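Support reply, case 0932

Customer input (verbatim):
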Amino acid sequence: MNPAGPLVLVVDDDGTARRMLDVRMRALGCQVAMAETGREALAAIERDLPAVILLDLQMPEMDGMEVLRTLNREDVEVPVIVITAHGTIETAVQAMKEGAADFILKPFDPQYLEIAVRRALERRQLLDSNRLFRDTLAARSSDILGESPLIQAAVLTAKKASGANSTVLLLGESGTGKEVFAHTIHQWSPRRDKPFVVVNCVALSEHLLESELFGHEKGAFTGAHQAKKGKFEAANGGTVFLDEIGDMPPSLQTKLLRVLQDHEFERVGGSRPISTDIRVLAATNRDIDEAVKAGRFRADLFFRLNVIRIMLPPLRDRKEDIPALAQHFRARYAAETKRPVRRISAEAMDCLCRQEWPGNVRELANTIERAVVLCSGETITPADLAVPGAHPPAPSQDAVPAAEADGFHDQVNHYRRQVLLSALRRTDGNQTQAAKLLGIRRTSLLRLLRKLDIREDQAIQ
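Our regenerated output:
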């Protein structure tokens, strides 16, 4: 789908000037709307916010300077290029004070007009990008971490899906990384240089969510003082991620279905169809299949969303990924908080791996962030973790004869053996991975194995 070019509003009481500007703007690939007076211009802006306004100053009823003041007073962010045959330095200065982006005298130089319009369109694009910046920044994500078969299967599906425009439905418990996956799919896609916009379908009331998605016209409801683009319109060319789609109200499900089918919608309070080129990714932690059966979620919308389905496993089903995730979050939060936390002790890592993590990766991240902040040295210990059982396990008296555990050094060496054997067994005897898990060098691990007389056959029992 090739969306129409940017809309330019030409405001001039001179018919010849309007026709000339119409030809010039269409040659630049722009759509053109016309107004003969200032009042007509304001009415046209209420109907459809243009990307640029070409404004004459001397007009009947309401002159161009009053139009500028009105736009400024109502906080309408549109670049305005003043084009007039009655220009003075004082007039130009006054127009700039009232918010004009440029000032051109008639008869104008066509090349200069083209440069001014292109510059104004770039400014318009920058304004739109600034509005979307917070959404895109909030949706930043790191690489997907994990080598477990379940997470790798999900990654493989995401990679295959990224090159298409098909909708993707991400399912999984809260905190399993659905937004991270959505952002990664966008980054892998041909739309990577366009906006990635996140909308939480449960965080807003039904009416606010409708306005957030579809935009609204001026006067559509109390407080709608000017027309506003919705996320579907502002994200044109990019990706919209609908989080918690299972909680979307039924009335909005119907409107969303039309967007997916026809790539068209109307703003709240409007009647003009607006086309948009977006890709939709959706996610929910609900049992969406059960919701469809119970009639709480439209079956036709579900089928539109469920083109590519990716199930994200809970952290308790991929515990082998916990060490890599924990080290990743330690490095991130140490950098963000500027704290010299360089490692996680073997005892602390063992404690992390024993947890069930009902909050999944998000809960693990929060736990590591807290530990980094509270850690008093370079190493996170069990005492820094706010999780059940966050203390070193007592040495097992069954593993060695009591006579060997009588002395202090014997007890310490016994505990070291247990920690090393635990790390090696969790990594199937892989010494390099075990060293990473323990936060030590492989050479240090080998030295400890020799010192404690740990054989390879013991490590993989």
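We compared this against your earlier run and they match. Two observations from our side: The chain has a mean pLDDT of 84. The chain has four domains: 7-135, 144-313, 317-384, 402-459. Please reopen the case if you see a mismatch on your end.
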